[in-house]
Amino acid sequence: MIAIVLSGGANRGPLEVGALQSLIAHGIKADLVVGTSAGALNGVFYAFDPTAAGMERLAQIWIETKVEDVFPGNWFTRAWRVLTGQDSLVDGANFRRTVQKYLPEAAKTFGDLKVPFYAVTADIMSATTIIFGDDKTTPLIDPVVASASFPIVLPPVEIDGFQLSDGGVTAVVPIEVALQRGATELYIVDLEPSVARSEEVHGVLAIAMQTLTTSLREQLIDDLRDAITAGAKINHVNITAFPDLSLFDFSQSARLIEAGRIAMDTYLDAPRPYQIRPLASAATAQALRPLPRGGKRLHN
Q1: What digits encode the pLDDT tens for the residues 140-153?
Q2: Are the beta carbons of 185 and 230 closer than 8 angstroms?
Q3: Distance between CA atoms of 209 and 218, rounded to whole angstroms?
Q4: What is the DSSP string of 26-85?
Q5: pTM of whole model > 0.70?
């Protein structure tokens, strides 16, 4: 059973669209698709129309989307929301309307999709990962919006008393979800940019983000190794293009799509399954200064 696993990636999500276009062009069809955050947005469209025409429509949606469609306001309004105790820097209404506008009219529930699809969310009340998609009668809109509600920037989505936020908090590359649902071969589209740094990190927000990405990187390595141990055929494609793209820059979508297509084409021309592809940070980490006295890396 073939699964496509789509990672989080925020506004770098168009990279996944290009990768999906490549998979389709190479005749690779998914039996199920799992998505976190931007991967949930892309995954639901693929699951509804897993064709070249469907992905072309998705590409156009990304190209037409403007920053105000997702993140309205400015730094003054965002600061004001912090000072007045709001749940996020940006009100989530615009983002929800944008997702609702672009979701195919016939795609109301998970059962309306042509390919089984699973959206990954994180409940900040119970501190657990919650997956949507097993119950086919569940409406799509709230779980998809929740999965892509980047914490701090966008507010959590309340569903039946749960506060659901971006699935990337706990499962940025949701490999385990696919394995639990019977996948035996995985095409993993991983948008993690370089994690390691050659210079010290300073600033509260910068340190917070670096801490989170470090944690998620270690989790990803463990998940990849677990998948191999379970006997799954993994194809790990780490697409690192545009690593420094500002979260509020939606002007590069066409270039991102092309970069994603080229990256997947390159992998499929010489696939290396059953191997953990070197993560973007690996080479950088090796080049850093010597380890602290008595220290040893968990993963080499």
Answers
A1: 999 999 999 988 88
A2: no
A3: 14
A4: TT---SEEEEETHHHHHHHHHHH--SHHHHHHHHHHHHH--HHHHS-S-HHHHHHHHHTT
A5: yes
